Amino acid sequence: MKRICLLTAAAIAAVSVLVPASASAAVIELGATTTPLVAPICPKGVSASNCTIILTEVTALETIRDNIVYPTTVKRAGRIVAFTLGLSRLDPNRTTARQDIHFLDQTYGGTTRAAIAVLKPVGSKANRRWTVVAESPAYHLQPYLGQVVQFPLETTLPVTPGEVVALTVPTWAPVLSIQVSSTRFAYRQSRNANCTNPPATSQAQVTPGQNAQYLCNYPGTRVEYSATEVTNPATVSPIHAKRRK
Fold first, then answer.
1. Burial of 149 by CB count in 10 Å (0-12 exposed, 13-18 middle, 19+ buried)?
2. SS3 174
3. Pairing state of beta strands 211-213 and 129-135?
4. Predicted confidence band at 235 (pLDDT cuts at 50, 70, 90)?
5. Is the pLDDT confidence value at 116 over 50?
6. Using CA atoms, how far apart are residues 118 and 74, in angstroms rounded to an integer?
7. Residue pair 131/207 in contact by the 8 Å Cβ criterion
């Protein structure tokens, strides 16, 4: 019996040497930091007219989150499989919220929608120009207002190291947390002028190959989004046996 057990143990050890190590993919939440995503609300003491929690007709790129620079930067090649948004309910009163939604729909070209865009830098860093390399379809957001919600992508988006994930809003989306730390949080919009007012026409990057300068900077504001990446599995070099002569 002892001899059989020893032989079995030896066989298992030999098989374990021949079987290659697992080369698993990793799941990474791009943009996730110590501050969790939340559904934005108006801070206490801020009037409705000054409650600028609505992002309109632009692509937004978070540049600082919890002191992490460009937190949605891709470090390993893979595919974006989902994205998550924190969406304000606008107003606790349902009648007022419906009135707000109607006004925003009429003012900003349609119902609340958002997509994610994969961007790569163009030219020097000082130029702050980014071009779209991939973009998801725009998702309708109204049924999910007041929640933190994840949207799985029907078609995943390939990403490579150095690219970043941004949030595109072709109409409007209540995704901004305001009056947060100006040293720990900031984002930029895909436009280069009149930064203190909403864009007069849509500046959203919606087409692969489209590029824009991100010169409008907003410290003290947090964009409530992140993106889920599944990285490509690591390759393992095959072991080639020596040829017999």
1. middle
2. coil
3. antiparallel
4. confident
5. yes
6. 10
7. no
C-alpha distances out from residue 79 to 26, 114, 153, Å: 11, 19, 10
pLDDT tier, 50 (very low <50, low <70, confident <90, very high otherwise): confident
Whether residue 187 contacts residue 62, with contact meaning beta carbons closer than 8 Å, is answered with yes
CB 32 within 8 A of CB 226: yes
Question: For residues 146 and 92, what is the distance between their CA atoms, to the nearest angstrom?
Answer: 9
Tell me: pLDDT of 218 over 70: yes
| Count of the separate structural domains present in the chain | 1
CA triple 29-171-94, angle to 5 deg: 90
- Residue identified by tokens 């984002």 is 187
Three-state DSSP class for 37? coil
Phi/psi region, residue 155 (left: phi>0; alpha: psi -120 to 50; beta: rest), is beta
In a domain, 6, yes or no: no
Question: What Å distances lie between residue 83 and 29, 138, 173, CA to CA?
Answer: 9, 12, 14
- 239 lies in some domain: no
- Establish how many alpha carbons lie within 13 A of residue 194's alpha carbon, considering only the half-sphere containing its beta carbon: 6
Q: Which residues pair with 129 in a beta bridge?
A: 122, 213
Which residues make beta-bridge pairs with 64?
A: 69, 186
Residue at 165 is within a domain = yes
Q: What is the pTM of this model?
A: 0.85
Q: Which domain holds residue 125?
A: 24-231
Whether residue 236 lies inside any domain: the answer is no
Q: Token digits for 51? A: 């409650």
Separation between Cα atoms, residue 28 and residue 228, nearest integer Å: 6
